[in-house]
Amino acid sequence: MFSTELAEIVLIVEDVERSARFYGEIVGLEPENEPEDDWAWFWAGEPGRAQRVALHRGPLLFEEHSPLPEGERWGKVHYAFNVPREKLEGAVDHVREHGCEVYGPVYFDWMEALSYYFYDPDGNLLEFWSPNPTEPWRTHEG
Asked: Rounded to an integer, what distance in angstroms lies between the CA atom of residue 13 and that of residue 76?
């Protein structure tokens, strides 16, 4: 294995300021810096660690080499935030209080985890994923 952790995920968004408010106020991520017209960066976990979420308006590096047609080169994504079980209901309530529809809960027997899903303003599917507190960390697959 070459990778030790996820360094960053960059989401293509229509409005960086709107999405930055969503990820800061609703998802609860801590901003790394003040949003700009084209970029905003957030810590996906402990501040100062490599795991970050970026919001970007405009093309990315090497987009012109994508095999998909223009306008479909990156598409919508799904990703999950690991939320400790004791904070899960509070996190879900917080998202709902901000007017987002939340789907779930879904319990996954095969990975002994509970999940809730919701969409960001650009149609990306987010998940609050919570493994059973008695289980050691498991890789989230699927």
From this structure: 10
